[in-house]
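Need the bound structure for cytidine-5'-monophosphate, inputs here:
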Amino acid sequence: MKFVVTAGPTREPIDPVRYLSNRSSGKMGYAIAEAAFEERHEVVLISGPVCLPPPPLNLLRVSTSDEMFDAVHAAVRDCDVLVMCAAVADYKPAQVTTSKMKKRDEKFSLELVPARDILQSLPRDRDFFVAGFAAETNDIERNAREKLRHKNCNMIIANDVSDSAIGMESDNNAVTIFFEYGAPKSIACAPKNVIARQLVKIICETAQKTFDKKNLRMNDS
Ligand code: C5P
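Answer from helper R.:
Posting the output first, comments after.
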């Protein structure tokens, strides 16, 4: 299959030297891209700024959520599976100043506007499979199911980022996968490359079932 995998954080500029970002290391997304590549899938990895060595596959580097948006939209024109593992900004500064903001002694507020949601912007009627991620600190199942519906994903991979032993900057992870149909599946705590291999297997099986169902529906009508 042709995989597009996104990884890492985005950086939303405030001025020429400052930005808003998050603690995503990119490790989970890179591990998924590498696991899919090892299984001989074609892989495009779209990465925000991370400190990881570049894997030997098609790597596109981006910085802002707008760059990630454009890169994903271009890449999904020719893909079977999109895995949105990147921690894309939810908000960005309303204005970016062209010169460095001066230090002030009084409080000030930074106005933020919502960043474009890449998953929500994807066409509803599409011929590729979409797996989204949900990094949650509470109400994991409720939030993950809400994202599955609201972001129109075929699958949501949820993890508890309030537990510092797993998730964002850690080498380990533990996830629960929520599907459009059927019961959730959990993968117990393990190194991210071990989790990634299992995820790629589950993604391929579920994507194949989704494509088969779609073909059956098309043949019926
Ligand atoms: O709403 P939240 O940011 O928790 O959703 C996480 C999922 O949404 C991830 O798959 C992430 O890649 C995706 N996302 C997106 N565009 C954004 C923010 C998040 O596609 N602007």
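Comments: Helices lie at 27-38, 65-75, 118-121, 140-150, 192-220. The longest strand covers residues 129-136.
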